[in-house]
Amino acid sequence: xxxxxxxIPTTRNAITTFNMIIEAALEKFYEGGYxxxxxxxxxxxxxxxxxxxxxxxxxxxxxxxxILITLSHNIRKEIASKxxxxxxxxxxxxEGIKAFVQYVQQNPQMYNVIWESLYxxxxxxxxxxxxxxxxxxxxxxxxxxxxxxxxxxxxxTAYVLMGITNFIGLKVLLDLGENNEDLEHIIDSxxxxxxxxxxxxx
Amino acid sequence: xxxxxxxIPTTRNAITTFNMIIEAALEKFYEGGYxxxxxxxxxxxxxxxxxxxxxxxxxxxxxxxxILITLSHNIRKEIASKxxxxxxxxxxxxEGIKAFVQYVQQNPQMYNVIWESLYxxxxxxxxxxxxxxxxxxxxxxxxxxxxxxxxxxxxxTAYVLMGITNFIGLKVLLDLGENNEDLEHIIDSxxxxxxxxxxxxx
Lengths: 202, 202
Prior knowledge:
With about 200 residues, chain A is mainly α. Chain A is about 70% helix and about 0% strand.
């Protein structure tokens, strides 16, 4: 678990200010990157006094970690709520991929925020994906115990599915290649591979 | 195609200096990121005079693009040379994944260099993956015409396979989760999914 060391505000005014700082940071990080953004640039963009920042965040790193934790929490909650409505693992995978891509479309800065951890602190990147994978492994192990899936290694399978989902999300978000408006068709193609494999049977 | 605007050196001394600048830049970018690295820091680290940089590179961006083009070229050459030795598409996929992961292990800064294009110029990121995908699509289309694979959309399949390969590479490189020393087992797990699909048949 990535640890947070921020001070969560409690009054309405403080919460507003806190959220303004986070919104401003998201925009500035997206524009100029973490290393290219100063605390002063964030407070200026948020329209708050420079000292206000330190009421909540000991450092720029704390703010970044808070953003990463929040994003991670929101993605999982979003996917989990959609996936819970489905019965079979097959339906759950389909719904999970779709929920992820739609989340990405609504939060285009997502990859920038997560992958920037590679440059800020590799441990954060590692922890982000490992904790995502741990939850995935749980679901896949359950499906395997139920005889719904058949895999040599559930953990490798979790990373395979995360890789697929992340690259389909990138394709749609950045409009890589063709036909990115038809999300159902894209997901049909992915699911056909997950259902039958890629190679024809001899 | 990402365009380069650098001056390629021709004399032995100039080539040595040129390569020293590139090596130094790779290290500095890996440490502090593109935005966090100045041209001065690069020339200092390379042990060359500040003005030397401009003999070859009009800007830091030109240097970064050159590194990205070179990396892209090297990965493809490496994979292509290994894959060419295999007959079937199934063997080619297996070999391609393995060659990619081994390349990553020998060039641990690879993800940092490529993904940093998201923060430097999204067009570069887009072009990098689109041109990788175009080549992949060619190979997959050929395999489909030969009846070796069966897919709804070869382009989506290219991104699926790129996603799998990239995340397996990340898992091994950053030691995400367990059992990352046994590359053959990891690739066996991936290939089982590509051969049979993930879900059991009713």
